[in-house]
Design the sequence.
């Protein structure tokens, strides 16, 4: 990949630039917890974006996407927004840096990546983080790492129409080999935990479906959470998010909320606790408990939060049947991947059974991605 980028950069710009990379991410556990002030638990993966980049002495950016075989040229003022959607990520990062007072100028760049697009590993964050990190380094801007993540997030909000949280960009920038990062979505405090699943593989199975329900269901879930918080606050005014609530507090208002809202809140309260439990388990190298919690999350997302779907439940059942240590839907739900923690000696049989039975039932294959927890944004030598 690096050679392909090098060749293209040389061909287009007849010079040699610096090379930067930034990864995609997985989230081991902690789903729908972010907007409830809770914890997420992501890690950077061994798939990412690589970009060669060099100042060109003009006020224009000349960018080439190797994977899409597409070229874009744009200026750095708000009126210069490029048309191609991939270029908007780069433009957005430039704009967000400039808005923060960063002084940058035109540059040439060519880039490519191996994070599958739209599969739930955040290829877009990998792209933003690569350029945020690169420009900060090249122009000696001294922007701190958290702000680099926020620049990526603001790019999604302001230039790509995606109202995302901070997790993806955070993980892409802060990732560390052999570590997952517990991020407190309220205080933005974070802590690294060891992740050395010796004898296990981490594998994503992509259902390759995306059900339309996702965004309206998401909004409804948020309203359920807010409704329950409002009910609990009548007894406990200190409760700001479900993060602050206990099952005891929830049970005290059971008669005041719908059974549906109750289930939603139960899932969130339990899920936030599960993140903490998994962190404890990892400190003891106890991957069996990690796996058990992953199954609990899947069950909660399927039966209480009701954001799973037939395909994902099917893949989860196959995992259970094949003795996979842990499996759950990853991401918001209604499609995308399951993330599976699999003992190496069970891996081949699991993958075969998943492919055979899934294809027989749904008429198309799932996709498989092995991932290894790896380093975050960095310059390549
Ligand atoms: P994801 O969940 O993978 O982040 P998004 O829809 O948010 O999916 O982002 C995908 C978009 O990011 C693509 O449509 C494209 O504009 C850009 N992108 C991601 N990877 C690449 C790549 N390798 N080359 C060019 N653009 C890319
Ligand atoms: Mg994205």
Sequence:
């Amino acid at each position: 990949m690096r050679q392909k980028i090098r060749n293209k950069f040389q061909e287009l710009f007849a010079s040699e630039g610096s090379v930067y990379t930034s990864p995609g991410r997985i989230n081991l556990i902690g789903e729908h917890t972010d907007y409830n002030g809770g914890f997420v638990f992501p890690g950077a993966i061994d798939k990412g974006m690589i970009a060669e980049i060099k100042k060109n002495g003009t006020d224009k950016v000349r960018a080439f996407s190797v994977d899409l075989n597409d070229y874009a040229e744009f200026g750095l003022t708000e009126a210069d927004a490029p048309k191609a959607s991939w270029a908007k990520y780069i433009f957005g990062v430039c704009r967000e840096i400039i808005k923060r007072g960063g002084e940058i100028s035109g540059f040439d760049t060519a880039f490519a990546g191996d994070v599958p697009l739209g599969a739930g590993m955040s290829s877009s964050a990998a792209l933003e983080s690569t350029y945020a990190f690169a420009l900060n380094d090249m122009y000696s801007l001294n922007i701190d790492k958290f702000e680099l993540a926020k620049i990526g997030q603001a790019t999604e909000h302001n230039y790509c129409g995606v109202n995302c949280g901070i997790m993806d960009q955070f993980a892409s920038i802060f990732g560390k080999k052999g570590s997952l990062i517990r991020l407190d979505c309220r205080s933005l405090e974070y802590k690294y935990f060891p992740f050395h699943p010796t004898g296990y593989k981490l594998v994503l199975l992509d259902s390759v479906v995306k059900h339309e329900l996702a965004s309206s269901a998401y909004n409804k879930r948020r309203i359920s959470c807010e409704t329950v918080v409002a009910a609990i606050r009548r007894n406990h005014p200190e409760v700001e998010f479900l993060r602050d609530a206990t099952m005891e507090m929830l049970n005290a208002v059971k008669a005041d909320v719908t059974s549906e809202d109750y289930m939603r809140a139960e899932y969130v309260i339990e899920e936030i606790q599960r993140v903490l439990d998994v962190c404890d388990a990892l400190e003891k190298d106890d991957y069996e408990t990690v796996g058990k919690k992953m199954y609990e999350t899947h069950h909660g997302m399927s039966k209480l939060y009701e954001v799973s779907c037939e395909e994902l439940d099917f893949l989860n059942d196959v995992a259970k049947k094949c003795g996979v240590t842990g499996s759950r839907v990853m991401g918001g739900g209604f499609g995308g991947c399951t993330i599976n923690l699999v003992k190496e000696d069970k891996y081949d049989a699991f993958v075969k059974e998943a492919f055979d039975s899934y294809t027989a039932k749904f008429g198309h294959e799932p996709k498989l991605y092995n991932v290894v927890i790896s380093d975050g944004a960095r310059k390549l030598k």
Observations:
- The first helix runs from residue 2 to 13.
- The chain has a mean pLDDT of 97.
